[in-house]
Amino acid sequence: TDAEVSIRKKTFTEVQTERLEQAERTVLIKCPPKLNEKKLLQYLSSHGTINSHFFFENRGTHALIEFSEKDSIASLQGAVGIPSAAEHHVVPFKSRLFTFTLKNPVNQAAEETPVHLSPQSHIPVKELIQKLCHADDISSQMYILLNEYQLTEENTKLRFLACSLVRDFASAYFPDSTVKPFGSSVNTFGKLGCDVDMFLDFHDTQKHATKMKKGPFEMEYQMKRLPSERLATQKILSVIGDCLDNFGPGCVSVQKILNARCPLVKFSHQPTGFQCDLSVSNSIAIKSSELLYIYGCLDSRVRALVFSVRCWARVHGLTNSVPGTWITNFSLTMMIMFFLQKRSPPIIPTLDQLKELADEKEKHVIGGYDCSFVSDLSKIKPTKNTETLDVLLGDFFEYFGNFDFRRNSINLRKVNE
Predict the structure, then answer these.
(1) Residue-wise burial string across 213-229, b where 16 or more C-beta atoms lie within 10 A, e elsewhere
(2) Where would you tag: which of 87, 211, 284, 338 has the fewest CB atoms within 10 A of its CB?
């Protein structure tokens, strides 16, 4: 709804920074099937104040615990035991993933309390259809679909935690680096169950390079030099991939796809239940995530229309989770943005209009492409368009049903065909 949108007026970068910082103060605990929630939280509180927590089901019950201070994690790690190496030899990497067990489960059985589990996947289609049947009109149905499929607050926290846990490995080699999610995990268009795209960011290292320009002398780090950025990316990902494979608790099915156009490491992160793709510094991808974030925050109809059209395309087999010759969700989303820019009056601004509102610090040129646009949502005037979602959905199909794809293309910068 628009009330939700007005609350969420933080810039994309502010939200990212806040969530990454939250994730640094978070641990994930595998719990026994029968659990006294109060006692667990009481024990954890002895290491520091708990900001928030939730339980979820993923091959057993897990608890995500966010402390208010990072020091609480060090305190907890100092009090936790190493698994006994009776059958297997353990790799002594102390992560922020723990297993909580009861010493006398029988004696403590009377104290069990059923914990509330936060769902991490959307409801089955049959249940969804029942909910849709009870709605008053098509617009209400589209908002129901959005609410059932969109990422929840808890699921988003888990995504940032997965990135933060990968960063724990990367920072052993590159202390200034961060691991950030991009794409559907952060652009407001992610669906429950979608993969986590993440990238290793060395941005701070580049900022560091400009520090020693003043003064009568210069001093710099000695660093390994390689003939190309691509080769450096491949070597970095190869090592991080090996670390995750050999030492990462819960990291399985690690695949290094280093000869792809964009080299990456694919892996399954069992503790959070996510399929993850890790790449290296991807400035264009993060800017396109920010652009979609802005469009998604401007008007509640934008996300509702995107979720409905994507759902329709998926059900009719037009899109596929396996890469191939079919249209992608990203392309469909671009078509919807273009369509919304062409309404009278427009529902969202063009990229050129967003660029005109940008100030000096929002100017970005990446690989020769001007990627400048405003990031402060309050500078963008709300639309005067009041069309309902059912009208927009019908007109979207009408518009692209008659679109001459052979002769025309779409342009979000100027709204030209």
Answers:
(1) eeeeeeeeeeeeeeeee
(2) 87
Strands (E), 79-149: 97-99
- Separation CA 415–CA 417 (nearest Å): 7
Characterize 130-164 residue by residue with b for buried, 16 or more Cβ atoms within 10 angstroms of its Cβ, and e for exposed.
eeeeeeeebbebbbbbbebbbbeebbbbbbbbbbb
Residue for token pair 């020091």: 71
Domain architecture of the chain: domains with CATH: 2-111 (3.30.70.330), 287-401 (1.10.1410.10)
Which residue is associated with the tokens 């320009």?
A: 213
Q: 3-class SS at 1?
A: coil
DSSP sequence for 327-359: PPHHHHHHHHHHHHHTSSS-SS--HHHHHHT--
Q: Residue 279 — φ and ψ, nearest 5°?
A: -125, -175
Range of weakest confidence among 4-8, 20-24, 281-285, 402-406: 4-8
Report the relative pairing of strands 274-280 and 196-201 from DSSP bridges.
parallel
Instruction: Using pLDDT thresholds of 50, 70 and 90, give the confidence band for residue 138.
Output: very high
User: pTM value?
Assistant: 0.93
Report which residue type is found at 308.
S
First to last CA, the chain: 31
Contact 319, 310 (CB under 8 A): yes
CA distances from residue 135 to 129, 192, 241, 286 in whole angstroms, order as listed = 10, 22, 47, 37
Arithmetic mean of pLDDT over the chain: 91
CB 176 within 8 A of CB 203: no
Enumerate residues 6+ apart whose C-beta is below 8 A from 406: none
Q: Find, among 192, 205, 213, 188, the residue nearest to 10 by Cα.
A: 188
Give the type of residue at 267. Answer: F
